[in-house]
Each structure stands twice: as structure tokens, then as C-alpha cells.
Amino acid sequence: MLVEPTKQSWQGRHDPLDGPDGHRWHHIVEIGPSPNPGAINLLGFACDEGVFRNQGRVGAKQGPQQLRQALSNLAIHQPLPLHDLGDVACHDKNLELAQGEYSGLASAALKKSQLVVGLGGGHEIGFASFAALNAARPQGTIGILNFDAHFDMRRDNQRTSGTWAADAFEIAGPRIKYACFGISSASNTAALFRTAQKHSVQFRLDERLTLLHLEEAKQDLSTWLDGLDHLYLTICLDVFPAAYAPGVSAPAALGLAPEVIEPLLKIAAKSGKLAIMDVAELNPTHDIDHRTSRLAARLIYQTVNSLAPSP
Known about the structure:
Helix content is 35%, strand content 18%. It is α/β, with parallel strands linked by helices.
């Protein structure tokens, strides 16, 4: 069910003496959809049923509203046609219905040549985002770029936050090229590595994605992007160490530093192929000092501003 957006979700600092130069995201975001190409749509997925099914810590359904609060005070330095489309909520544990509704709304925006930025929510948002892009772009190769400690290619008899990538291959395998950056060998079984190999997944382990490896990773990503027609970018916040991101469903002992991921996000954004993105697993119930939501907001901010024209 769609929970309609309201301006009350966007509250922040005012600096009236600065005029438009003092504006922040909460000043410019529009409520509701836009008919114009190039609009940037924020669409929440207030759901953690997939996390529950995957035996993770629930609470991510509160993520979209917390993320809006973190986004509200971000500064404006260039034109950003931001639109809040509201939240798709999961009722009566019907994850599949919620994924279908989210996919339909996102696909409608994509067909108008607009960007969709998903605010998660559990990583079951991944299947909904991919399905939207698969429907809106019926031709060409779709790349899934996942910053994650996990492959999310588990086998199960139902959809979960840990099966979404495997579910994507079920509906559109021949079209997909999957790259996963930040994989933890400690958190993925041998069976998951075999599944990744079966589907020719390109991945980098977390231990091979430090600042010392950044230039090599940037080149690998650029080469991979060259082979795509359309890009879906997804960031699972459990790819960061728990010190950076305590408010997630599955906290990481080790992980990637934000300064490693940000340059890679900019490369993806500037490729000209990014159609849809999301940030997943924000769990405010377990966050400390809003560290995780602020990090998530920063990642969205950097990606969106890399897309926008310079002032």
C-alpha cells in the first residue's frame, strides 16, 4: 500500500538571511510525481518482511522516514529536481505484493526517463528495483552493481532479503551482468560462492577493496560498466563496519570504508547508464547517533550530485 508523501517528513534548518544560497533539500523537494524527464524521485520501501524471513534483525521498515530526516538538511549547490513519491508499505507480511507495487511505481517513473532513488527498507527492495528496470527497459543488458558484504543469492522457498539477486536471475538471467563489491568470505558459504561462479558474478572481496586497491577497483568498475546498457545500483549498508553503520540488519565486524565507496559511486553515476538506485538495510532501531542514516544520506547525496549538471 502506498503511503502518500507529506511535507511534514521534510523538516530542517532555515537560514533566511542567506536567501536561496541557504537552501537545503527540505526547501526544494516537491511532493508527488513529476511529468518531466530528468526528475529525481525518492521512493520509500517501508518493509522488513524479507529480513524477518532471512532471520535478520527487524526494524528496517522504519528506514525511509529516518532517511528523509537525514536527507533534509543536505545543502544545495546545483539544481536538483527532487520529488518525494511516498512509501510503499508491506501489510500482512505480503512481501510479494509490496514488491510488485514498488516495482510498478518505479517502472512508471523510469518510462518517463526519470531517476528513481529507493529508500530502504530491507534489501528485499533489490528484487523490486530490478523488476522495475527490467520492465521499463525491455531491451539491452542490465547491470546490477551491489555494494554488499553478501551475494544475496541464497536458495529458499520464498523471497527474502537474501534471495533477491537470485530471484532477479530467475526472471531475466540472460540480460544480467552482476557485480558485487565488498564481499565477506566469512559471511558467504561455499555454496554461495559456487552460485556466484555459476552466474559469472564479478566480485571483489572486502579485503581487496581498501584505499590501496582503489585505483585497481576503479579500473575494474569502468571496464565492467562499458559492457552495460542500463545500470541498477544498490548499496547495502552492512557493507560498512559496524562503527560506521551500527543500524543495520546484519552488522559487520569488518567492511569497506566510505572513502573507498564514494569514488566508485561517482564513476557509476557519471557512466550515463544509471537508471535506478537504492540504499538498503537502514535499521533505525539499532542505530547510534544517527550514524547509519547520515552515512546513507551522504551516499545518496554524492551519487545524485554526480549526475546533476554543474552550476
